[in-house]
Amino acid sequence: MRLDLSKCSPFSRVACHLFCFALLCSFSKADTEYYRHIIFDNSLESDAYYYSDGRASSPSTLELLHGKLPVSRDVFFTPANALRLNWRSAPDGGWEAGIRAMNFRNREMKFDGDTLYFWCFSEEEIAGDKLPLIRLSDANQNFSQAVEIGKFQSSIPARKWVQVGIPLSEFRTGSIHPFEPSRAERVVFSQNRADGAEHTLIVDDFKIDAARAADSSAVNGSLPVPQNVSARGYERHVDISWEPITPADLQHYLVYRSTDGKDFQPIGIQVPGINRFNDYIGKPGMTAYYKVAASDRQYRLSDLSSPAHATTKMMSDDELLTMLQEECFRYYWEGAHPTAGTTLENIPGDDRILATGASGFGIMALIVGVNRGFITREQGLDRLIKIVSFLEKAPRYHGVWSHFMDGATGQTLPVFDMFDDGGDLVETAFLMEGLLAARQYFNGSGEPERGLFARISHLWETVEWDWYRRSMDSRALYWHWSSDWSWHINHQITGFNECMMVYLLAIASPTHPVPAKLYDSGWAGDHYTNGHSYYGIKLDVGVGSGGPLFFTHYSYMGFDPRGIHDRFTDYFENNQKMARINLTYSLQNPGHYKGYGADFWGLTASDGPDGYMPHEPTRRMDDGTMTFTGALSSFPYTPEASMRMFKHIYRDLGDRVWGVYGPRDAINLSQDWVSPIYMGLNQAPITVMIENYRTGLIWKLFMSNPEIQPMLGKIGFTRDVAPQKSGDGKK
Ligand code: CA
Hints:
By secondary structure, the protein is α+β, with helices and mostly antiparallel strands. It has 16 helices and 41 strands. The strands form 14 sheets. Strands 1, 2, 4, 5, 6, 8, 13 and 15 form an 8-stranded antiparallel β-sheet that branches. The protein has a 5-stranded antiparallel β-sheet with strand order 3-7-14-10-11, with no helix packed on it. Strands 19-18-21-22 form a 4-stranded antiparallel β-sheet, with no helix packed on it. Helix 8 (500-508) packs antiparallel against helix 9. The longest helix has 18 residues, at 10-27. The chain is globular, with a radius of gyration of 27 Å. The model is unreliable at 1-28 and 213-221 (pLDDT under 50).
């Protein structure tokens, strides 16, 4: 498709340009392909690489930093760092150092290629027979026999980067089962010849790729130069973006910085599919210049782009909040699936997997994006139409979408287990929460908006909430149904947790409602009320000390709890108490975890060093992992404490956690771990709940749906005369 820019008027030429840019974004390569090759490129932590390990048996030695391999920040092949192997192989001793691939959520450890490549650098020449042995181990913990690096690299010359390439066929199994090189996930160096001398090897950019003949005719400029580089200064960081390039051989982008506009040094790389880089400078009043280049899979660089520059500056609280909202919004705008237009489960991750509930959250974030001018109304409307078109074609199970879908085909993806191949009522409720807010926002009288209104209404009216009651005498709704397995998962939806929205919408449905009495017998059935005090804060409703904070976010991004109460509690106050208990838990810090305090709190579900976990303020469900969405999505409940957390992680921890979509998912200071991913469930609540705190926008939209007020009446909610304001009130 090609647009003729000459036919555009000066005004619409800008729009054409934006449209072209959106098209390019849509068809750019995604990061999943990148991770089919890369075992290691850079460490997220700047002192030691989390996904490494090592051990030495005396008298041999191996340099380790709290059990991990140290990071080389000054010498690297791909910026910003590399790993340092410093060893001494002594007779009767031994050592081993393992470098693992980052095993982020839904990463399939399967590599494309026939050769293991990595780069080496040494200050002094190291002869081939003094280089370590190397092994690989695979995802099933089967391992290869040792291979002599010296067989493939006669020596490492002094002060010169060399790339070692070893055919995977050389790695024959050393374990009792076959070793699968394409599923290698750990590279292990170990003691070879005991020469008794200390050696240091800087190693970088481990990958599995196709062998190709050395192409000596290759020259700089083989890839196109990234165009339209721009830089925008915030308080402590500069956001650099450019137009994507799409050659199949693109391996990564390189970003260069200069402080004088003349001497440009490489500071980082970016994967294909993301055309943005976050340079955390750390203080206001700094001017920096940037250029971008592209590297192919043989590390041949394009020419450097034209420069762009920006200056960091102090920002007001209001400006900081807008910055945070926009950065998290980008996950759903730039990071969306190119075909479906909607939300990926996590980035990086598996770029097929769309998350249904997170798509509803993303829709609410898109509305905020339009309202705050991050994108135009037309762009937001186009995106909504694209999402709705996808949802209309995706399989539904009595009107209910599955938890995960393939973004290209809509096909149900049973990510959790074989039984989860049907409808998911909770995910569908969160999706519908977003769609209903969008229906009220795009309510213009023109055809596109009227058409969208009708199409969302049709989706809403064809969800068979009543089918998920399972039988006419059932007291509750059921989470899953599948045409293959029927009610096999058998999971009743009961509170208190994140699921209130399911009952609100099922009772509000104009076409497939369930009786309002299910609110009491199902949602508020068993174990709903609490009545205990935690740190002197009495909780009316909730499990234990409140559970993970997402319980107070997911249903209340649309449903405005201010001043509304049922016979159990006032939900705004109850949610506020959960946030305050969570905050107080961090102040008390019974697990003695690093960093916890008044500006570092908010336990909730997220990625963690051992995978996804619903962290909560109890010893059992707290492993020191702090999830940023916990406090940042609680702004309506605890604005002062949430702002303290925001400023701390941006101003003090920003160099470790701040990325292209705002804060990364989580950090564990006790384990020196930073999450490599952003999650679809966690970024949007930040954007949306901050908007609710600032203007109440999404609350107003959702509550204005004509089916909502009658539903509140049917359930028996009552409203205070004047809705109470959000705040840190200690009622
Ligand atoms: Ca590197």
